[in-house]
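Re: [help] complex structure
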Amino acid sequence: MSGNTTRTDAHRGRRREIVFAALTLAASVLFALIVIPTGVTTPSSVKHLPLSPAFLPYLLTIAIGLFALIHMLEAIFAPHIPGEDEDMMSGVHPRWKSRLLMLCALLLVYLLVPDRLGMLLTSVLVTVALLAIGGERRPVILLGVGITVPLLVYLFFAHVAQVPLPTGIFEDWM
Amino acid sequence: MLENIATGFELFFTLGNLMAITAGVCLGVVVGAIPGLTATMAVALALPFTFNLDPVTGILLLVGVYKGGVFGGSITAILIRAPGTPAAACTILDGYPLAQKGQAGKALNMALYASCIADFLSNLSLIFFASLIAGLALAFGPPEYFWLICFSLTVVISISGSSLTKGLISGLLGLLTSTIGLDLVYGTQRFTFDNFNLMGGVSYIPLLIGLFALPEVIDFYVRKVAPVTVKTADKSRVTLEEFKRSLVSIIRGSFIGVIIGTIPGAGATAAAFLSYGEARRTSKSPETFGKGNIEGVAASEAGNNGVAGATLIPLLALGIPGDVVTAVILGAFMLQGLTPGPLMFQDNITIIYAIFIGIMLSSVVLLGSGKLAIRYFAKIADIPRHILLPVVLMFCVFGSYAVQSQMFDVGVMLAFGALGYVMMKIHMAAAPFLMGFILGPLFEDNLRRSFLISEDITIFFRSPICWIFIAITVLSLYVGVRRELRATRAKRDAIRAGGAR
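Output below.
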């Protein structure tokens, strides 16, 4: 039974490594054929190949492709090492999808909202929300940590480190 | 000379100087421990306070902040996997696993001891070998730099983790990311796609914070139970046996730091990784590195703190700032009406001696303030993770924003956080990525500058320094690859033996 499990793990791990190598290889080809030609402007006056702005990106992309190929061969032919290939989905939270979605939404709030609401208010909202998602239910902690810590951090960055943080709706007060 | 030293002592031993160096180190430790606020930023923040101080007091305040900042970065690197300064990124590799095992106190103490010893040795080098080492550093042109960077890049092999090919791909991706921005020679765009924010390249601090700290936050919310929680920063101490075992790595790392620190632009991060790589290469149990080996913490901290005193060598001996921090300190010298360089050793030798005495004392102050900082900062490890991680995320956002005061950097941090999380899930080491990203601009710049000097490829073999670095690069590659292949073969044999049974 355990022999079968090990074999299944090994099979899964091997497949995962092959997929990783194949994706990396495909990405390097895509990069060399599309991204570098469109993303790097090479002046016509370049006399010597290593002086070209595209030289290093091409060199690195080729090297990445080469190592991806080596990794793929390694994954195909070398015996798999089960201990190191813990399943990506093992031990996940039963509601991990919704938790991840909420986390992503809150990270977007951190990115998009501070200019309007101000960094302080955004931090308070996100911190309280994250505490709640993490399972904290005590109002004292939720509000105490959620308000006091962002306020102290804000004051430190704004007044000690002199970082001009977005003030948002508190513009007239701060 | 003795008279000058005596005058230097007289000039140094004032209450103001002692207070300045103590306050500087303490401020540096606190600021350095906050992710996003680097030692450079701490020195820049302290600069205005020096305007009305005596030259010696002002300079010592800044030097204290700098040294404190370099150590402070390791505290949060060990406790919450968020390096306070870029140079502390290497300390994560073994410091954080030790904290996860409930040995945060031991890791922090070893980081402090290694930092103090390295700092002391670096200061001694500054005092006794300044002119000699500065002369050697002047012999470095673009080809010599190029080979030095090539040698530094071989460290990627040592920090690749479980898969050498994945580690190399990670390092190459880091190098590729470093090419984003305006081309240094022609000024044309590379992967900026007309985005103004990318013209100067990807910001270093947001990338660092995103790559190391954010994946921990994401992982916490995705997992059922946090797989590993940082246990209480117990009373675990470094034993004499552990200290003795790490001493060679500390001394070797200190001298690596001194050499790297003397060469302008090379940086403390590269020194930390080089020192770590060497410690792992020469260790009898290299497989334990990256899993909580106390020697790994000692080596990386010795490497990055060894740089601290040495960066002052080109500044004081030649008047050339080796990095941004010493450039700020150079500004402070000039504000005080002093011009560092050979002439300063003639005209203001007593001030130089007073500064040297203060710098030596800073290592002792660092030990005291570091002990104090460990006692209080270590309590962070006691905070439940569901409360700690939202606060860590907040520091990540504030720290990233603080770099250039723009939300774009927060976006960069989040993007690299996502990348770091994916890398964590597919068992791809993030440290080689960081190493590639740091050394990428230096690698390309010196490669192209060499070709600008001469289109003939023989320029890369023009001096004995080039040949020395070529030899150690080849040797390092050979030894590193052979060791990794042996380790892989040993694992394979173990599996086969297990399967046969």
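Strands of chain B lie at 181-182, 189-190.
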